[in-house]
Specification:
four-stranded antiparallel β-sheet, 11 strands, 15 helices, single chain
Length: 459
Amino acid sequence: MTDLFDDLAPRIEALARQIAEGPVATAVPADEVRRHLSETFDLERAMPLERVVEEVTAMLERWQVQVTHPRYFGLFNPSVTPASVIGDTLVAAFNPQLATWSHSPAANEIERFTLRAIAARLGFDPEATAAHFTSGGAEANLTGVVAALADVFPEWAGAGVRGLPGEPRLYVSGEGHHSIHKAARVTGLGDSAVGRVRTDASGRMNVDDLAAQVAADRRARRQPFLVVATAGTTASGAIDPLEAVADLCAREGLWLHVDAAWAGAAALSPELRRHLAGLERADSLTFDAHKWLSVPMGAGMFFCRRPWALEAAFGQRTPYMPAAVRGADVEDPFSHSLQWSRRFIGLKLFMTLAEAGFPGVVERIEHQARMGDRLRSRLAESGWTVESETPLPIVCFTRPGLDVRRLVARLHEGQVAWMSPIRIARGPLLVRACITSYRTTENDIDRTVEELGRLARGR
């Protein structure tokens, strides 16, 4: 098995180089892809595995946005480490089931070991924190809403929303992630239970407006129970004032969930950690390893300082599941989280950390932050206006008279870079660039800024 992976690692690196030298994106009609599938694959007949691999690889090389490309400046989809790819391959080969501890002690303990190490660096007490891997940030955010309901309203788990003493209310900024609305719908609260809090021009939550909404809801005999603060908004990388939000939640007896799906990684960096002050005061927290820790999707994480809330929300015992291990400090993941069948999500992160160590992982994070700073400064030097205020590597920018959508389209067509149009707090349309690859170099940044100038001048 080791010999196989010795050969796999250089193949992964070779693929990364091939992607870096090729196009960032492609445009293809759906009919072309469908026609190719129907003409190439007849699922009624067998095909040699080697050819299947060859054909699928060719499709993925030709017909997708290459999110591991060093000039993919788009959504939070990173270049991935060889160690993490090998980890995912091992998981597929062994196919462990992590629903119960007894079925896979090794896998469960690797995940526990990894999560406790990260919890400590987030400022959580690893001995008192419940944590588990999730499919992604949306599941982790849903878990935060469910845990808050179970903790604040003990009757909710049995009676549901109809059994509560009044209309529950939760709050998130106008720039917060829309998975919170999904969570409100899934839990039966509905969109009307979500208070969207005003933000400043940079997209940060206005705590005075939050306080006013909570007070107004209490006067109307509604039941405020949860505030979702965002550490690194999707649009602009804005970080809500976490300390002030935590102070308000403490005064009002509200559960504080922090959605740090992307920017949680900044807490691992001594250089960037100060920008997330107050993160450690969260009752629960979302953090995606598959965003800024350079591992394949999906690898979300959920941390909770009130473990009893997870047991209240998800606790189940059934005769067809193996009996819980007694007399040991172990937990069966199915009994304190949403998933039942559980993939060994954490191995790719564990292997990345084990190979590079936290110092190596932090260097990748700080390198991307430096590339974001370079992009910011080079754009300003070249006459662009940078509109976003964040220490994180998201840069939103424009210039007078710019047709943003046309520029973005030309960036894609010319294989310069992949960026997207965005608005911050209902402002004008801007170009958004986010450094998501530890492989991005100063040359990538400089080349992109030069091409941006040429395209903006209509050349």
